[in-house]
Amino acid sequence: MNDLANTIADPALLSARRLAGAFAARRLSPVDVVDALLARIDRLEPRLQAFVEVYRDEARLAAEAADKAIRAGQAVGPLHGMPVALKDLVELEGRITTGGSAIWRDRRSTLTATLARRLLAQGMIVLGKTHTVEFASGGWGLNQHMGTPRNPWDATHARAPGGSSSGSGVAVAGRLVPWAVGTDTSGSIRLPASFCGLTGLKPTLGRISTHGVLPLSPSLDTPGPMARDVEDAALLYNAMQGPDPLDPTTRGIAAEDPMPGLRHGVRGLRLGRMPESEREGVDAEMLAAYDSALAVLAGQGAEIVDVVLPFPLGVFLQPQPMVQAEVFHHYGAIAGDPARQLDDAVRARVLAGAGVTAEAYLANKREHGERKRLLEAALEGIDALLTPGTAFAALRLDEIDPAVMLSRFNGFANYLGMCALCLPSGFNAQGLPLSIQIACRGYQEATALRIGYVYQQATDHHLRVPAGVM
Questions:
Q1: Does 164 qualify as catalytic in the annotation?
Q2: Is 372 a catalytic residue?
Q3: Structural domain boundaries of the chain?
């Protein structure tokens, strides 16, 4: 570490926003930061198992180049030199992309995902690829053959990291990287964010290109940021969003910068409180944190209003023919071969789509459209629906039933074309993160981030670091 870095004890503990400021002020260089992160990876990765692969030599070379560009006054933007990690669904030409599957350990990408090209064009440094549930199919974060990342909030027991963006969640929570990219089909950004004490944004379908991202269910898949706080999440989201001619879902959806409105406060906003019936089955400490979060936002000027929902949020925990068919389309041939090494639970989920007819597929899509109209009517005049991020904090791995679906409070946002932000709302008696979710109408990411920013300015839950990684 050079003399500039001596003013900062451990650059790896700084948020991306603060790192960018330190780069601009020449108090830190990208070389300092990459070296600090690689040192932490050397120390913690054997236990945390967040990464599939770390690009050590390439990251150092990129950091040296970024440092020279910044010192020469030729930075391409404020994020030049910033490290980032990518979920192992995001293609990088010439690199291995396994999709979390041992059968693809040697699968080398022939293209680079649009979102990765955008990050690289802004001078960001890809530190490595992070673990995912096989084919991104599962909410607990388990991976039978490639390994399950370890939630850093419990140094004694192995706990669920949340999935499917498990490695991204653990890498950011463990301070192995300032932020990371995940993907979300039914909670796969928000579940690891909730279990790992992070801020995770599921954007609306079409906000961020999925070109070059291995699919699960293209009707629902959305990449998004996983970060330590709302401001960092907004910055990374901004860096990835925008139309892409290679992804038809992005056509006509102009990028919308959330940063100008981030500090506008919540006075005048109407925030929906979930019905009493939705509290059933939710852990008492999670509910207490949820009620406290509503009180904080009310104290900041928001109006908290009761909402009558047209259906239980957990209705989407039932198998959805649309998703089953799309998953089977992509992975059915692999799952149908008993000789191929595949996670048992994932194989069962993939094969469940074998019998879905075209009629059932289309009927399910129509049903989602009708439910979307019903929920929009119920939320008329309401700016966001607030729920817990999950029903409970992270369980120990030996307590988990992989067949149980976790996305009770998450899936509705995907199926109904909404965006949603999860962020820490406190900690339980065991010191495990609790979470709240802010769900907004489609393309209202700026509103969700604005509400989350106000909440984090009034609380400090997002500032806590797992003791075991210090």
A1: yes
A2: no
A3: 3-469
